[in-house]
Write a structure and sequence with these properties.
The structure holds two protein chains of two kinds. By secondary structure, chain A is α+β, with helices and mostly antiparallel strands. Helices cover 25% and strands 18% of the residues of chain A. In chain B, the strands form six sheets. Chain B has a six-stranded mixed beta sheet, with no helix packed on it. A five-stranded parallel beta sheet of chain B has the order 3-2-1-5-6. The chains are: A alpha+beta, B alpha/beta.
């Protein structure tokens, strides 16, 4: 039997093992989700992704339902939309705020976006609120559980993707609470501060404390995102650098990064502010007759740099000059370093820092 | 790496040796964790009970510097038990008969006497690796930072060649590179033996090619390595240009290194901070940093990727390519008239057969379903090569190496009775020029400490949390003691990240005679209370 099914009246193909949600998304159907992260096993917790399947008595969660041959699916109708809207109203009835700052995390706007889409600005549902925020003096991860909707994305990303199992679920039902072993601080758990829980959280309950410290300095212009590669180890994770004016305010993992598929570690996620540290060298320095380094102009410094190599060449010959290229700078720098030595002196007196 | 990072989820048996991947390449380690969750078996060989060891199904706690013996023992068992891939050996390798004879003497019982790993565990490791259809090896500097780094790597190659575990999904021999563009630096020809694209300098054809490109004849002899150059400072080396390396803290035997750099007539350092190395320079040139610089880098799986500037550099800081070009122009060297990194990268691609199909625009567009940009990319229509050695090896046939075990340059003695091994930690990076200046990292890792097995404290009259004096044949430092079972008895560990605990004052007992990689992983020391 061929892998054909119908979605909203259109015949589509699927591959074995694909879920209805995945097939629908490939065909640009907008199905709302909250507990879904494409990198994780489907969970079926939030029920927003329900669709109607011909022959099924009730709507099914499309994220946990596998596509089958001949399946006829309807991704939207009045009944489903009413159901989704009611579910969303229930979800937001417990949350202190919905429109959170985008610096809280990569997915932190998901709930607010859905509320905008369904034009839910307030809820008639009132009552007790669950989730108690946790004081935690760590510098990176805010644990604002009053915004938690128990989608378990944080728990699942920590277990399934990171394999760290640092956070878990305590209690059941209304009293459900995301926590660590022994309900302690993240520092005392298996947490490696990779920040993945922050980035997958759809409400900003888990948030990037470090980025939020920059909020006061963020002026009223949009955040810019620049795609680049992490500056640390050789894995080469793709990241988006978040900037405002000329300031780096945070890092988002690139979910489509070929080497990391959205994963990062504590260094790539949080150790970015060395770039704009006051210790940065801003001016060329040359050592003067007093034996000290003094600030100077590029012209003076470059002249002195070139002059020293010329002198060494003239006095000691071409084998007296050596170049060490960086394993941190881009390849253009390493290429020109070797060209400087080879074209300049005709030797192979060039190396990089890979021997230590 | 012979295989792409995505393959890390796919082996049935994973053999990690000399790699602390969960701390040093954490994102790559997530792939291994997924493989294990799927049912793959993990073998970990490491002197320290690191995070990977805790996850493993078989842990081989070998004595520092004994890797070759362990691997010879494993090869012996694979041969003895007939777990070899005869078809692969016949078609793809050479020298097996000699190797088969060579290996017969190196029994696991012999290996136990060198490594301290029980012979039966060496046998189990060999059986798992040898019987698996998809077994992959991962290693890092724990293999290469030894006087026998070459033998260690050759020993791993022997295992791969015997069993045909290469050229297929979920197999291979995979060194993990430690810096964001250390692969790219080698690709670009910043090596004493190779032009860009790993073209040998000793081949007259390559000499001719670069003569016509660069307008002058370049030596047909290999240059000297950095290690040799540092030894010759003040003697025959008188001027040095260092780009973005804190040589003084990252290299072994700091005192020797400082003396070398101070004896130069002329030292020019390009960096983003006034590092300990830059402080010794005659001219310090401020470079633009990551996040401020446009350029190309290559990751550990040979994937060529674009780095982009997001903000302006501070003050007068300039990109490295501009700085090097301006020095070259002032010396009258031709071929440095660049106004952006793009033509520089395109020149590199034009001259490197492995990059021949790449150019700036292709990297700018990134990875697509059709193009993965993993070298070699021999022509424009080529998609890239995620997996090496699928049909053939680049140099023809895989060669078995009849390696012998050698002791480290220095072994423990009455004066220096404890093994020190060094490495990195998750939260700090190298000499902390970057992580040490990033807010919050100090909360996780405020200071360096020496990891000592709790049962060894009494022997050396040390106390957990107190300071001790650690000395080697080269010097002494003071360091705080941390009792932990991560260190086995008789072996201690510290990272080289903290300037106030300069562990590389002690290291530097020797280096591999071929690669000139220093034996940073083994250093006999003495511990005394302060």
């Amino acid at each position: 039997m061929s892998n054909l099914m119908q979605i909203d009246g259109i015949e589509v193909t699927f591959t074995e093992g694909e879920t209805v949600l995945e097939v629908a998304q490939r065909h640009h159907k907008e199905i709302p989700t909250l507990c879904y992260d494409p990198r994780l096993e489907p969970f079926g917790g939030c029920r927003l992704c329900i669709v109607a399947v011909e022959g099924a008595r009730n709507p099914v969660a499309s994220c946990t339902t596998k596509a089958t041959s001949g399946m006829v699916v309807e991704t939207t109708n009045d009944e489903i939309e009413t159901y989704r809207k009611t579910l969303l109203e229930l979800v937001i009835s417990e949350n202190r705020e919905i429109d959170v700052h985008p610096l809280r995390g990569f997915a932190s706007g998901e709930l607010a976006n859905l509320c905008n889409k369904y034009e839910i600005h307030e809820t008639k549902i009132t009552g007790a609120k669950s989730g108690t925020s946790k004081e935690d003096d760590n510098p990176f991860i805010l644990r604002d559980y009053e915004l938690c909707i128990s989608c378990y994305r944080c728990v699942r990303v920590c277990a399934e993707q990171e394999g760290d199992h640092a956070i878990n679920v305590m209690n059941r039902g209304f009293h459900t609470q995301i926590t660590t072993e022994f309900d302690g601080l993240l520092k005392d758990s298996a947490c490696t501060f990779c920040g993945q829980c922050i980035q997958t959280c759809p409400t900003g309950a888990l948030a990037d404390k470090k980025a939020l410290r920059a909020v006061d300095e963020v002026v009223d212009t949009p955040l810019n995102k620049t795609r680049t590669i992490c500056p640390y180890c050789g894995v080469g994770c793709s990241v988006d650098v978040l900037t405002n004016e000329n300031k780096i305010v945070g890092i988002h993992p690139a979910m489509d990064g070929p080497a990391n598929q959205g994963a990062l570690c504590v260094k790539g996620q949080f150790a970015y502010d060395f770039v704009q540290h006051p210790d940065r060298l801003k001016t060329p320095l040359v050592r003067e007759d007093d034996g000290e380094l003094h600030e100077t102009t590029w012209e003076v410094a470059l002249h002195k740099a070139a002059d020293g190599f010329k002198k060494a060449h003239a006095v000691h010959g071409r084998y007296s000059i050596y170049g060490i290229a960086s394993g941190r700078a881009p390849s253009e720098a390493a290429y020109l370093m070797q060209k400087f030595i080879r074209a300049g002196f005709g030797t192979n007196y060039i190396d990089n820092c890979s021997r230590a | 790496m012979s295989n792409p990072l995505v393959d890390m989820e796919k082996p049935d048996v994973i053999f990690c040796i000399g790699t602390n991947m969960t701390e040093c390449h954490p994102v790559a380690a997530t792939g291994l964790k997924k493989a294990i969750a799927r049912g793959a078996k993990l073998i970990v060989a490491d002197p320290r009970r690191i995070g990977l060891a805790e996850m493993s199904h078989l842990y081989l706690p070998l004595r520092v510097g004994s890797d070759t013996a362990l691997l010879l023992g494993m090869a012996h068992v694979i041969a003895r038990e007939g777990l070899i891939d005869e078809e692969f050996i016949e078609n793809r390798t050479t020298g097996f008969d000699d190797f088969f004879e060579h290996i017969s003497q190196w029994t696991p019982e012999w290996a136990e006497t060198i490594t301290g790993v029980p012979a039966k565990d060496i046998e189990t490791a060999a059986m798992w690796y040898g019987t698996s259809d998809k077994a992959a090896i991962y290693y890092t500097l724990g293999i290469t930072e030894h006087i026998c780094g070459v033998e260690n790597v050759q020993s791993l190659c022997n295992l791969v060649l015997m069993t045909g575990n290469v050229g297929r999904e979920g197999t291979g021999i995979n060194p993990m590179r430690g810096q964001n563009n250390i692969q790219g630096a080698g690709d670009s020809g910043a090596l004493p033996n190779n032009y860009p694209g790993f073209q040998s300098v000793t081949d007259p054809k390559n000499q001719e090619k670069f003569k016509s490109e660069y307008g002058r004849t370049i030596d047909l002899e290999k240059g000297i390595t950095k290690v040799t150059a540092l030894e010759l400072c003040g003697d025959s080396i008188h001027a040095m240009l260092i780009d973005g390396e804190n040589t003084l803290l990252s290299d072994p035997d700091r005192e020797h290194c400082e003396h070398a750099l101070r004896s130069l007539d002329h030292l020019v350092v390009i960096d983003i901070f006034l590092t300990e190395t830059a402080e010794l320079a005659d001219v310090v040139l401020p470079a633009s940093a990551w996040g401020e610089t446009d350029g190309i880098c290559t990751n550990t799986e040979r994937r060529v990727q674009r780095m982009r500037a997001a903000v302006q550099p501070p003050g007068d800081a300039k990109p490295d390519w501009w700085i090097i070009s301006e020095i070259a122009k002032r010396m009258g060297i031709k071929g440095f008239e660049f106004d952006s990194p793009k033509p520089i990268f395109n020149e590199l691609c034009r001259l490197s057969p492995i990059y021949a199909g790449l150019d700036w625009n292709r990297i700018e567009n990134g990875v697509t379903d059709q193009l993965n940009n993993q070298w070699p990319v021999p022509h424009k229509e080529h998609p890239g090569t995620p997996r090496l050695h699928e049909e053939t090896f680049v140099n023809g046939k895989g060669i078995f190496s009849n390696v012998h075990y050698r002791d480290p340059a220095e072994t423990i003695s009455d004066d220096f009775p404890v093994w020190l091994t060094t490495g990195r930690r998750l939260q700090s990076y190298h000499t902390r020029t970057q992580t040490g200046r990033s807010q919050g990292i100090d909360y996780l890792l405020p200071e360096e400490s020496l990891e000592v097995n709790p049962a060894d404290l009494e022997k050396w009259q040390l106390s957990d949390g107190e300071w001790c004096k650690m000395s080697s044949a080269r010097g002494s430092i003071n360091i705080k003691v941390k009792a932990t079972n991560r260190s086995p008895r008789g072996t201690v560990f510290a990272s080289f990240s903290f300037a106030d605990v300069p562990v590389n004052l002690l290291t530097g007992s020797g280096y591999d005679p071929i690669t000139h990689t220093a034996e940073l992983k083994v250093c006999p020391v003495r511990l005394e209370p302060l």
